[in-house]
């Protein structure tokens, strides 16, 4: 039997700091009195903790609140754009991307370095990643801000508890302990390295970008070379008990179809991924495909419609199983939304049993190919807000 003793003063203060910072994150512009009412802490305790958070550049004092009516106006508090930033990295099949995200969610210094990572030794790709991280840190230093940790998005199965990359079929990576390898290479300050599936991180970024007016239940389909899905239910990401959920690209669409890199036949990404669409349209790259679609080229339109049919077959299973009302198209699909949405909706209406009574939306991602790297950086910001004590002194 495990015994637990009373929480010490440091533990209580650490918990209360997180309460205060979260209250501001949830209600930007809130006053000290508002924080006390929201958290149940005394006004004196809130005032002391706010002073510490201001000194650590985690909070920003915006001056007196703007409100009508008599009475003393409280000080308006918000998360500080000058506090520690999350450094996001996306290791994709054909590029490495980095960005910085501050505590307010603003994105800075987004950089993309193109290059085929397929078939490359892990260490060779991580050399590129290490250089990209070092460059992002230098840019943070020039901006006068600290890096509070590193978030990494990868196209594969990532154990949610450990960050271990079990397999990334399109990179041909197996059993890679990315947190440990990147710690040794980069020695990140602040928080540990956080590794997650790129589709899940993209879905979280999209959820944040859509704000209060966006759907709270949706599947975010992230398509590049591979296809991944992030499932959001009631405003929360559902990645499965071990973090392996959302592998939509390996949904079996045609058992007699082409062999996939995962070893199976007829997986969705072999029929509806970027390479499959380009090959079917006989287009050299995405820009050519889009231009031909704008020119109403029949071969290009047929290629997209065939992809939509396969995608609809896979997504209808998710909609039937989970009763999800919205599909958000990200990555390559976001750029093809104009031509992809209608044939996809047609397939969904045919296959989803509840379609006659329950409207299904197909929406374009507002973040496109930036979603995963932004989500990776934002994952660090969430850990800072949840436990800011490491960034405070005194």
TrEMBL record:
Transmembrane regions: none
A Pfam entry, by short name: ROK
Gene3D superfamilies recorded: 3.30.420.40, Winged helix-like DNA-binding domain superfamily/Winged helix DNA-binding domain
Gene Ontology terms for molecular function: DNA-binding transcription factor activity; kinase activity
Region (Disordered): 61-81
Family to which this protein belongs: Belongs to the ROK (NagC/XylR) family.
Domain HTH marR-type residue range list: 17-60
Family matches, as PANTHER family: BIFUNCTIONAL UDP-N-ACETYLGLUCOSAMINE 2-EPIMERASE_N-ACETYLMANNOSAMINE KINASE (PTHR18964:SF149), ROK (REPRESSOR, ORF, KINASE) FAMILY (PTHR18964)
Native source species: Saccharomonospora amisosensis
InterPro entries: ATPase_NBD (IPR043129), HTH_MarR-typ (IPR000835), ROK (IPR000600), WH-like_DNA-bd_sf (IPR036388), WH_DNA-bd_sf (IPR036390)
Keywords from the named record: Kinase, Transferase
Protein name: Putative NBD/HSP70 family sugar kinase
Signal peptide segment: none
